């Protein structure tokens, strides 16, 4: 990563309409609250192409709004090779997406690809952020709480690593 480049953080799930846009919105909110917006480039994407161009799932919009976050402007996209250059931290929500990301990783990628739950302060015995897509709306609320806690841990990790 170049010295003048912002710290790139990319959240990744399968379709980029539930977990990763929620994580992007929550993490960006935490960054802004800490007065660090000038240091970060935060985005999200999916590993699959089927939601490209779509807005977040209405249940994700409702759940994030209930917790005080706004993800309405996000549009789903699929990861591409340029993301490996742009983002120092690529944060998949689950092992399956992590496997895809590491398989597609260009030779020489110097960033970190780590499961989001690695940064959760007590990870509740979980290693992945569960996908609520095929569940009812009520399943989105605990996911948002988990993402909030993992976001705090990730931000602390990055701040310590970069001295900010």
UniProtKB/TrEMBL annotation:
Keyword Acyltransferase listed: no
Keywords: Hydrolase, Protein phosphatase
Domain Phosphotyrosine protein phosphatase I intervals: 7-157
Pfam family, one: LMWPc
CDD domains in UniProt: LMWPTP
GO molecular function: protein tyrosine phosphatase activity
Superkingdom classification of source: Bacteria
Signal peptide region: none
EC numbers for this chain: 3.1.3.48
Main enzyme class: hydrolase
Residues the record marks as active site: 13 (nucleophile), 19, 131 (proton donor)
Family: Belongs to the low molecular weight phosphotyrosine protein phosphatase family.
UniProt cross-references to PANTHER family, sorted A to Z: LOW MOLECULAR WEIGHT PHOSPHOTYROSINE PROTEIN PHOSPHATASE (PTHR11717:SF7), LOW MOLECULAR WEIGHT PROTEIN TYROSINE PHOSPHATASE (PTHR11717)
Protein name per Swiss-Prot or TrEMBL: protein-tyrosine-phosphatase
Species: BD1-7 clade bacterium
